[in-house]
Amino acid sequence: MVKLEELLDLASIKTGLSKEEILLRIRNKQKELSGLVSEEGAAYIVANELGVKTKNRVVESILKLKELKPEMKSVNVMGRVKSIYGPREFTTKTGIKNKVVNMEVVDSTGVGRVVLWNMHDIEKVEKGLIKAGQVIQVKSGYVRESSFTNSLEVHVGSRGVLIENPDGILGEDFPKIGGVENGQRRVKISNLKENEIKEVRAAITAHFGNNFVHEMCENCNKKVTSGKCEKCGGTKTNKLLILNLAIDDGSGTVRAAVFRETAERLIGLKAEEAVNQQKVKSQLEKLLGSELIFEGKVKRNEQFDRLEFNIFNIKEVKTESEIEQLIGEKNGKS
C-alpha cells in the first residue's frame, strides 16, 4: 500500500499542485466525511478525484472496518480471512438456484463480515484459492446493516471483486488469526461487556421461539414480512435461519442468537429444511446440556435492557486446545 508521504509526492508530480495544497484537500475531505476516514483513507479519495494513478491503476481509498457506515457504496476494504462459511446453495421464490459465501475478516480495527454473491469469487472459494489466514481485498463492495445483529457487512455483488493476496500488501500489516483470538480472550458470562467481541465456554440450557426461518430481501438484506420489502420494494428473498438460545457457564446465563451458516451447522439443517419447526425443535432438544465454545459480539437489547450474545462461530470443546488455553491464561497471569 502506498504510504501517505509517497502519495503526496506522486500527486504533486502528477498534478503540479504543491504538497501543502494537496494536504489541505485531504484534511478538508476528512472534515467533509465527518471524520469517518483516516488521513490515509482521505488521501486515497483525493488522489482518485485528481486522477492520480500508481502502477497503471487509479489509487483507491481503503477503508478500515471501523470506518464503514450503512449504505456506503463502492467501498474498498482489506483484511485477513478468519473463517469461511459456505458456499451455501439456496433457491429463490422464482426457482432460481444461487450460492452465497460468508467470511469473517479482521483488520487492525476489528472483525467484520464479507458476503460473496458473484460466482467468480465463490468459485475461488470452492477451488481453495481463498482460505482462512489469507489477506484479501474487496473492491467495489457495498455495505448493508444486518436487521438482526445490527452489525455491518460488506457485500460483493456483480460489480464487485475479491482479490486474494493483493500485490504490495505486507501480511504483517494485518493481525494474525491467533493474535486476534488471543486479543479476544475467553471470559466468563458474568464479565461480558457491551460491544465486546469475546469467547465463552458454556452449555446450552434452553431454546426459545417457534419462528426459526425469516425471509430477507435479496437487495438490501432487510426482513420481509408481507411479500414485498418495505425499504426498497424488492420481492426476491433469501431464507435466514436464526436460533435463540440461553447459554450458561456457571457464572451467569445470557440469551444468545445464532445466525446463518453457524445456526445451520449447529442443528445440521439448511434454512430451507428448517421451515419444518418440529425438525428444528427436535435437534435443539438434543443439544440441551451440550457444552461448546461460542464466539460472538455482545449487544444490548434496548427493549428488555439486557445484554445478549450474537454468535458468529461455534467450536467443539477439545481437550488439547483447552489445556493450551489454561496454560496461556496461567502464563498471562504470572
Give your account of this protein's structure.
Helices cover 26% and strands 35% of the residues. With 334 residues, the chain is α+β, with helices and mostly antiparallel strands. The protein folds into 3 domains: 1-60, no CATH class; 62-182, Beta Barrel (OB fold (Dihydrolipoamide Acetyltransferase, E2P)); 184-333, OB fold (Dihydrolipoamide Acetyltransferase, E2P). The strands form 3 sheets. A 5-stranded mixed beta barrel has the order 3-4-5-7-6. The protein has a 5-stranded mixed beta barrel with strand order 9-11-12-14-13. A two-stranded antiparallel sheet has the order 1-2. Strand 13 (291-301) and strand 14 (306-316) form a beta hairpin. Helix 1 (4-15) runs parallel beside helix 3 (39-49) and helix 2 (19-32) crosses helix 3 (39-49). The longest helix has 15 residues, at 319-333. The two termini are 39 Å apart. Residues 55-59 and 179-184 have low confidence and may be disordered.
Descriptive tags:
globular, single chain, five-stranded mixed barrel, OB fold (Dihydrolipoamide Acetyltransferase, E2P), 14 strands, 334 residues, five-stranded mixed beta barrel, alpha+beta
Distance between the termini: 39 Å
Overall mean pLDDT stands at 81
Biggest β-sheet: strands ordered side by side in the sheet: 3-4-5-7-6
Overall structural class, as computed from helix and strand content, comes to: alpha+beta
Structural domain count? 3
CATH architecture of the largest domain: Beta Barrel
Instruction: Count the beta strands.
Output: 14
| Helix percent band | 25-40%
CATH top level of the largest domain is Mainly Beta
What is the chain-wise order of helices and strands? HHHEEEEEHEEEHEEEEHHEEH
CATH superfamily of the largest domain: Nucleic acid-binding proteins
What's the number of helices? 8
Portion in beta strands:
35-45%
- Which regions have little confidence, pLDDT < 50, spanning 5+ residues? 55-59, 179-184
Largest sheet: 5 strands, mixed, barrel
Net shape: globular
CATH topology of the largest domain: OB fold (Dihydrolipoamide Acetyltransferase, E2P)
